[in-house]
Amino acid sequence: MADLEDVEIVVVAEIVEENYQATRYYCQHLTDGQIASLRLDLVTWGDIRDKHLKIKGGKDGVDLDNERKRAAIRRRLRLMLLLEDVGSVGIRMVRG
Predict the structure, then answer these.
(1) pLDDT over 70 percentage in the chain
(2) What is the pTM of this model?
(3) 2-39 b/e with 16+ CB inside 10 Å = b?
C-alpha cells in the first residue's frame, strides 16, 4: 500500500479539522484507491485553498463557488476516514 507523506497528512488534518496524530492513525487504514482519490482532492484543495471565488449565473446556473468545493472535499475526506460530517452539533466519530 502506498503511504501518505507527512506533509500530505498535515494537509488532510487541516481539511478534516482533526489533529495530526488522529489523522495519521485514520490514514493508516486507507486502500491504495482511497489514497489515489485523496491525493486528487489534495491537488484541488491546493488550487482553491485561499481563493475566495463565488460566481453564479448563466442560463444553466453555472456555479463556481470555492467554499462549496472546499466543503465537498472536507465532507468526502471525513467520510473516507470514517468520521462524521461536521454538523451543527459538532464532530462525532463513526469509528467504534
Answers:
(1) 74
(2) 0.76
(3) eebeeebbebbbebbebeeeebbebbeebeeeebeebe
